Every structure is written in C-alpha cells, then in structure tokens.
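Annex B.
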Amino acid sequence: MMQESIDLSRYIRPGDTIWWNQGTAEPLRLTESLVRQRAEIGPCRAFLGVTSSTTLQAEHADFLSLLSYCGLGQNQRLMDAGMLDVIPCHYSQLPFMLDSGALPCDVLFLQVSPPGPDGKPSLGTAHDYLLCAARRARVVIAEINEQMPWTHGSPGVEDIRFDAIVHSNRPLLTASLPTIGDIERRIAAHVAEFINDGSVLEMGIGAVPDAIMGLLQDRRDLGIHSGMLGDSVVDLIEAGAVTNARKSIDRGVTTVGILLGTQRLYEFARSNFSLNFQPSTYTHAHSVLASINNFIAINSAIEVDLTGQINAEVLNGRYIGAIGGQTDFMRGAQAAKNGHSIIALPSSTRDGRISRIVSRLADGVVTTPRSESDIFVTEWGAAQLRGQPLQERMRRMIAIAHPDHREQLEREAFGC
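Acetyl-CoA hydrolase/transferase family protein: predicted structure tokens.
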C-alpha cells in the first residue's frame, strides 16, 4: 500500500520490536513518524545499529526502549540518558540471532532507493543484516527516498514484501570527515609497511584508516573487502591503486556492506557496478574471509594489554565502542593465505598521560582474546605477536608503548 503519510499504529502493536537501517541510511521519515506517534502506538522497542541522527531523544523513553550491538555514533548519548542497552555480540551473529528468534524483529523500517537499471529498488548504502530482518518481520514498511542511490549487489532484495510504502526526497545523513594529525600519520606509515601490491584490505572509518588510505596511492591492484567504508576509498579507487584485479574472489569489484560518509561517497556509489554490496552473512563470513588471499584486516581498540588482549568496548565504565566485526575479521585474516590482522591505535591518550597499552585491561572487558592476536601498531612501531610466547609478547608490546610509560610497564610486567 503506497501512502503519502502513514499511521504507524495500523502496523505496530504494543510490545513490538522495530528495526531499521543503521548509520546514515536511517529512514528519517519513518523514524520521525515513530517518535511523533509513539503514544498512540504504545510501548515498544527498537533495535539500532550505529546511529547518526538525533531523532531519538531522552524524553522518548516514555514509550520507546532501545537495544543495540554498539555504543557508536549517537548511541552513547542515548545510553547516558538511560534508554539504550547493549547486546554484546559479534556483528556476524546478528543474522543468526534474527533467524533463531533470539533477537525478535516484528516490524522493519527500510529505506530503499527508487528503481534502478533493473527496474527494482535497492537497499542503497546499507545492506548489512536487513535481508535477514525482512525475512523475520511481520510487517515491512519501505521509505523510497529519491536521493538514496541505487546500488548493485545483495541478491534477494527483490523478494522483500513491502506492506506499506511512503515516499521522501531528502539528502541522506552524512558523517563528518576526521581530522588527521601527526600521530595518525605515524601509525599509518607503520601499517603501510605490511600492505603490498595485490593486498585485499578491510578497515573501518576514522582518522587512522583515512591516514592509511592516504599512503597507499602508489600501490597497485589493491582489493577491498570490508564491512564499512568511508570517503577515503573513493580517493584510492580514483588514483588507480584499487582495481581488485588480483582478488581470489569477487575479482574486479569492491565488496562492502555499508557506506558511512558524505554525499560525494553516495554519488560515487550510485549505479556503480564496480561496488559489490553484500549482506553481513557474506562480508563477515569466516569461510569467505579465509578464502581471500593476501587479506589484511585493519582494526582498532580502546586499549590492549601486554599479552595481546583487546578491549574495543568500554572506557572508564562507559560503553563507547563495539565487539562488532573485529574478531570476525581478525580470525578470517589469519586463516587466509598470506593474511594478517593489524590492530592500530595511538600509544596513549592525546595528552600522553594515560597509556593505551596496559598490563591489565582496566574494565576487565576482553573484546578479542590474545589467542587471536597478530600485529599491533602504534606511532612507535609494530609488534608482531603471532606465534610468540607471553614473555616475548610483553617485550614487544612495551617497545611500541609511549616512551613515558615503558618503565612503568616493565615494572608491572617483569617486577624490575
């Protein structure tokens, strides 16, 4: 049923769980309608991914409770307001929890593009777990946004049944470009030493990934297989460094699940058949990742300990990160032929007072165990831990810690 306005109380029941596109692909007309009509609908729950809008506010907790897999974007503000709780899980687990019913999806809000070259709409800039959610939902409500780019990929979109359709014509949300400083450039220089012609890259968004991308324009035949990409990938493709010509799978195309960037990135994606959008059941699947020769997974952390344990979730008792796809990509990269997993992070806080390499993780949260560790990089160098015993791991990690903290780390590690 196609509508210009929509009475959501016709479709949403009290107690329902609602899902929608994450990040900058949020279907704003539908989520804004949910907020306005929440009293008429009754108490319900929403599952969020990364949140880029400010549509949800603390006062909406009167009828809305929220869940997420992460504390990223606007989610931290919602947690501080006491209306959002986090489900700690690997990103790759979300489709399976949907399929099993462990995570319910009663209603799905889905922002899609207008029909493209194939005469059908697409999931646009965010494919991730939406197909799985659509299969489980009792009701699927589509927002067809004239400004959502049609994108290539994700088989099965044409099978989604839309129970109601609304139209919009508004720019997508955007993510601000990060500021790259000296520390990020120094980290990037060390990471770049591990990236050769023909490497296939996974990395997130932010200052360090953008700095790394900026140093790779002299490489040839790089490939991309990543859960999320930002604007810096456009520079690398337009420079001719990324061709995907040597990929052992998906040869010739950049494989991605979500775009999180600016209008420039979205226009680059519009009807671009060199971008291969896939759901998380593909982008994060161990069997897929392990089959990518020369796969280099680059991720970050809040803090790491001297033996290679990683905390990417909690800082000073506050949930600010995510388990996300970190462990998925780390395991996949190390199972791949000539693959490597790199954790890149500054050695200390900006003022240098607190080391991000520690003898013991402060909040006791281990996002990824030390058994999965491979290479750690800070602005002071790289520490390769794969195959190394505990004592040697400690020595190598201390060597890439900030110089002001090395003596203290040595005392805590070796009692000297």
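The longest helix spans residues 28-41. Residues 6-168 form a domain with the Glutaconate Coenzyme A-transferase fold (CATH 3.40.1080.10). Further annotation is deferred to the next reporting cycle.
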